[in-house]
């Protein structure tokens, strides 16, 4: 007779363990998704650029209007925030779990492709707060996928922590909060600047290579076609000395140490002369950054012209091009230097915007909307 009570007790303990594990997994996933959403909410344009990067990596050369990609980024951020919140509340579990399964399935496939091809070096999962390598991001998504599947299997153990009306009120508030923050940040730049060019950054110092144990060590990976097949070689193997070998490509990768926090800053005039050092040595200068000259609006440039007219300080434009119809149309009266558009997007999200430098140190950063308010 004692066997039956013991079996019932074992079954009860198993249910308790499953319920506890379900609660732990639910809370962990909820916190992860809320944190991820809040980080991206701080900089929705950063996610927009990342989506465009993935589209380009997949060979989708469709020129989508920027507002559509921005809307997609805002929708994804808001959805991620609400899904994390309802997980924490234990509400709407069917919707939350199956939506998370679908989303994470897509993210897992994307990060696997990125890891294999190296097309996108940083997934952007946590914005500029935490940078993950493609393989680390893929591993993270696999873990999340497994946890979501486990929650689906154990969803009967998920019990609401709050009432229905309270939960709906929180969801509505989070939706309004997300849309409001996105609208504000798109006009006035991220609330917390986590990028390498934050106010107070000494750009020349940030470009210096680390020394000592953090000094970077690089190695070349050579790809040569030998006997009709592409093979990879190191410097020591000297593939250029192999009879009949045909050069294909060369990649340089970091073996150990660290890279400078700023690696891509440069300014080249239309004659091909590098003006970076002289620009950073100026006592005081305003940099007008524009990562997409063709898409920049004339009224925004007029705001900048009015702002600069009241200041007796040199002005230089850093843009993705120093010539073309857009440059002629806008009639920009300042010197224009070419800078890589990825670097320009990192410096300032506004297109165009203004960065104030004093001997290479970032003193202030302003979007066009901020300048308009200061007129």
Task: Give the structure's gist in a few sentences.
This protein has twelve helices and eight strands. The chain has helices spanning 3-41, 44-57, 66-89, 93-117, 134-153, 164-188, 203-206, 276-280, 298-309, 325-330, 341-347, 368-374, and strands spanning 217-226, 229-233, 246-256, 285-290, 315-319, 336-338, 353-358, 361-367.
Characterization of the model:
There is one protein chain. The chain has 375 residues and is α/β, with parallel strands linked by helices. It contains twelve helices and eight strands. It has helices spanning 3-41, 44-57, 66-89, 93-117, 134-153, 164-188, 203-206, 276-280, 298-309, 325-330, 341-347, 368-374; strands at residues 217-226, 229-233, 246-256, 285-290, 315-319, 336-338, 353-358, 361-367. A five-stranded mixed β-sheet has the order 6-5-4-7-8. A three-stranded antiparallel β-sheet has the order 2-1-3, with no helix packed on it. Strand 7 (353-358) and strand 8 (361-367) form a beta hairpin. The longest helix has 39 residues, at 3-41. It is globular, with a radius of gyration of 26 Å. The termini are far apart. 28% of the residues are buried. One of its GO terms (biological process) is methylamine metabolic process. Its main location: membrane. It is found in: Membrane. Pfam families: MauE (PF07291). Keywords: Membrane, Transmembrane, Transmembrane helix.
């Amino acid at each position: 007779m004692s066997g039956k009570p013991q079996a019932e007790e074992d079954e009860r303990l198993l249910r308790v363990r499953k319920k506890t594990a379900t609660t732990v997994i639910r809370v962990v996933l909820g916190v992860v998704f809320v944190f991820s959403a809040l980080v991206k909410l701080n900089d929705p344009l950063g996610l927009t650029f990342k989506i465009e990067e993935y589209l380009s990596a997949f060979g989708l050369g469709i020129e989508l209007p920027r507002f559509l990609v921005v809307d997609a980024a805002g929708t994804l951020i808001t959805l991620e925030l609400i899904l994390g919140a309802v997980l924490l509340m234990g509400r709407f579990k069917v919707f939350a779990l199956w939506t998370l399964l679908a989303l994470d399935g897509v993210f897992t496939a994307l990060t696997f492709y990125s890891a294999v091809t190296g097309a996108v070096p940083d997934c952007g999962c946590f914005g500029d707060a935490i940078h993950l390598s493609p393989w680390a991001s893929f591993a993270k998504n696999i873990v999340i996928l497994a946890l979501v599947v486990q929650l689906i299997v154990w969803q009967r153990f998920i019990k609401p922590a709050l009432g229905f009306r309270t939960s709906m009120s929180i969801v509505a508030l989070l939706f309004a909060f997300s849309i409001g923050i996105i609208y504000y940040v798109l006009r006035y730049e991220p609330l917390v600047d986590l990028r390498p060019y934050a106010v107070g950054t000494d750009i020349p110092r940030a470009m210096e290579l680390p020394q000592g144990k953090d000094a970077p060590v690089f190695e070349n990976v050579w790809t040569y076609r030998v006997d009709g097949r592409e093979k990879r070689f190191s410097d020591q193997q000297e593939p250029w000395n192999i009879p009949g070998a045909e050069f294909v490509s060369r990649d340089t990768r970091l073996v150990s140490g660290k890279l400078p926090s700023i690696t891509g800053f440069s300014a080249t005039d239309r004659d091909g002369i590098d003006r970076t050092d002289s620009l950073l040595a100026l006592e005081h200068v305003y940099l007008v950054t524009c990562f997409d000259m063709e898409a920049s609006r004339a009224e925004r440039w007029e705001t900048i012209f009015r702002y600069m007219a009241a200041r007796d300080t040199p002005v230089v434009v850093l843009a993705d091009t120093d010539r073309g119809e857009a440059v002629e149309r806008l009639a920009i009266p300042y010197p224009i230097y070419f800078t890589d558009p990825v670097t320009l997007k990192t410096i300032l999200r506004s297109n165009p915007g203004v960065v104030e430098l004093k001997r290479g140190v970032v003193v202030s950063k302003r979007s066009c909307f901020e300048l308009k308010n200061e007129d």
